[in-house]
Structure prediction request, 458 residues.
Amino acid sequence: MKPVDQSRTKTMGATRMSMGAIPVARQAGCPAPEAALLAGGGRDVNRSVREAPHFDSFGLPSVNHVFAFRLSPARINRIASVPEEYSRQRDVGMVMDGIAIFSAFLQGLGVVAFVVRLHELAVTRCATPRSEIVATALTFAVGAAVSMAFPLKFAPGVVFDLRHVFLVLAGPFGGMPAALATGVTCAILRMIQGGIGMPAGVLAILTSMTVGLVFAYLHQRREYTMREIFILGVGASLSLTSVLTLPWPLASEVLQRIALPFMAINFVGVLISAESLNRFRAQLYREQSLMHDRSTDSLTGLFNRRVFDTRGPEIAEDGFRKNGCYALMIVDIDRFKTINDTFGHANGDKVLKVVARMIASHAREQDLTVRYGGEEIALVLPGCNTAQASVIADRIRQGIEGTAIEVSGINLKVTVSVGYVVVDTSETVFWSAFDEADAALYRAKNAGRNRVERAVAA
Prediction:
């Protein structure tokens, strides 16, 4: 009979004790490293650490051994004998998580405030709707990128920031261009960050971007009510569902630690940002309405003479600088006084509105069309040469001549006379050229009306 190897028996006994100790320790709330080390009962801590697999704080193997650590025998005995102490330590850790999240939230609010102010400055300096769209898209994309530059890290590849505030607001306040610019920017930066949470992060970005676009589609208006902003704030937390694509131990731990703070912070961030943007848009709309009222003729909807006097020379000069020429054109309704006297001023106004609308339809996008006074419509055509001006003038005259306007049950035929001048030299002053166009108009009138006359710039 062979003698029993006492050291082998002790080792096997210790192994059996370890296999029983690990589930008990894990059930008590100990993470995987400490549960594995309890198997040794403190007999050789350093050796146990070296031999035991490295786990992160979520119970998953750590590729970089980021969370590997060494435990003293005293701590192992303390955890094994008093599991409540470890629970208290976990509670303290969750409190520390809360403090870190709150600090990140305050930092994120600073980024949000900066971006909202940047958006206001950019939009107020935009001269066209297209430039306003571009400015809005850029500011939201920059805001999301800056927010992602200061993340709160919970594990390798699992980060938290306020990017979703910008993602859900981009659609309602910037439309499709802003939503796409912000979403693509965030997705690229998240893929660069990498980590185990990268696919879930990209999915969350797509979710928030979709929430914003759907909200904008369902609420197509310039200003949003507090109830609608509240709904948008709740929608910002839908991105949290992407966490479920992570391995379940990691997803469970992340949800326990950040679910409520994540929803609260995104909700508050959306509320503050949306309300600020809402107030700015309302103020901007009021200012634009006042400016529109001051610069628009109430009857025809065209710009008024004030705009012609202030912007006309600027537009003409810009056209000359870029293309070496510009044209000025004056259109006058023939025998308009007779129309007023015969059919009344209400019908005369109707004729004027129809004629003004037709003239504006033949003008180009870059042209300035104004009601200069009475039945006269003036146009500034930047970059327009002689051939182009002639075509536009004939098109206006022929289009109006071929249109019957119903007045008091009668299809009334209306004609116009047109005078224009093309300026292709820097020596010609704007108002001198305008006088030449006016003189050409009166030559057309005197020559029998329903004509186009060209003046030669002095």
